[in-house]
Each structure stands twice: as structure tokens, then as C-alpha cells.
User: Fold this.
Amino acid sequence: MSNDSLLHSESRSDDRMGVEAVERALSLLDALGSVEAPLSLKELALKTGLSKATILRLTVSLERFGYVSRSLSGAYQLGPTLWRLGSVFRQNLELEPIIRPAMQALVSLTQESASFWIPRGEERMCLFRQNSPRSARSHVEEGESSPIGKGSGGHIVAYYLGMPTRFSEDIRAEGVVATLGDRDPDVASVSAPVLGPNREFVGALTLAGILNRFEAHVPEYKVIVKQAAASITRQLGGEPELVSHRSAERRE
Assistant:
């Protein structure tokens, strides 16, 4: 192999490896984003496996660019730059003008909470949220992460990512799924997939509420959530799934 070929091969290998310092910095942001309260230096070290000296060096740069800030107690928390970038990300998506009105219509019709979930690494993230006007409701915030394979939205995400889920047959058969007390014992939800062109999975449209209030309405909620997701799919240039109409709900 010539020197030029060797250098080219090494360059491609380096490209695939990434930059260790950047990945360490991102691991700090992931750790801070996984909890609601600021983390001390010791807690950050435990969560990331990084040394305190390494964390101190990385946070200097992260603070400088606004990705991390310090609380009054000196603990670390996510900084304002991430909120700004998240807002820009949501605003730049063509999804928002289509999905938000659909979610608002669902909430107006049912008085329950609507959300839209997208895959995010090994989890799913709530990209958009419209809360129920009721004081007793399920609580989720935009940007919050939740496990894949838990809750109806998690099962939809898992299915379309090709991951195992006990609801695979139900989703295939009906294109909508309901769970009762799966992710949270007091919460029930109904979700349906939103697809783009070429059957590309975009995300899961979810309606959720307090189980003892929500459960009796599951059959009708499945119909309207599925219809709303199909309408969004068509607006995005996709085709809704062709499915049968047998029931798909389970109590956990």
C-alpha cells in the first residue's frame, strides 16, 4: 500500500472514531439532562465515570459557551444555550406547524394531554407537548426523555425502530396501541405512528391521562388519535398504514 493510500485509510478511520474530548463533554451534558436538579462535581463524576479534574477542565469551555451554568450552591446545571438551540431546532422543523394544531384539537376534544415523541438514541424524546386544562393530568415536558418500549408511545417507537415489543402484532394489525399503567401505574395512553414519504417513521402521536378517568374512553380515543396521526402523515407526504380494525390494548 502506498503512503498516500495509508494516510487516506488512517484518515477515514479517525473520522469514524470521533473526538474523545468532545464525547466526554457530551457525556456531561447527557448526565445533566437526565436529572431535574443540579449536580455537584462528585455526583457528575459518579454519573459519567470521568475524573473530577477532567470535569473541571471540560466545564470551563462548556460554561464559556453557555452549555453549562452553575447554581448558587456551585452545582452544575444545563445552560441557556441549550434552550436556545432547542427552540431553534423546533422552529426550523416543518413538523411544528402541522403537529401542534393537531395536538391542540385532540386536547380540545378530549380534555386530556397530547404529545409527540421522536427517537433519541436509546430513548425517546417529547418534541411537542400540549397539556390538558385539567389540574389532574399526566406530567411531561418538551425535551423530556422516556424509555423506549414503555408506554404506548414507547411501544410505537420501538416497533418502527425494529426493536422487540410485545405490542408488535397489535400495532401491525390496527396501527394504534393503548397501554394502561405501563410507564406509570396511574397513567393510560393511546399512540399512533406518524409517517413521512416512503414510510419513513417520523414519531408517535400520543394522548395520555389519569388512568381511572381515561380507561373508559380508550376505544374512542384510539379512533381519534389514529385519525389525527393519519391526517398528519398525509400532510407530510406520507401514506397511513393499511391495517385491520381489531382491538389493541392491554392492562399492565
The CA atoms of residues 108 and 202 lie 24 Å apart. The longest strand covers residues 201-210. Residues 5-13, 244-252 have pLDDT under 50 and may be disordered. The beta strands are 68-70, 76-78, 113-120, 123-130, 145-147, 177-180, 187-195, 201-210, 249-251.
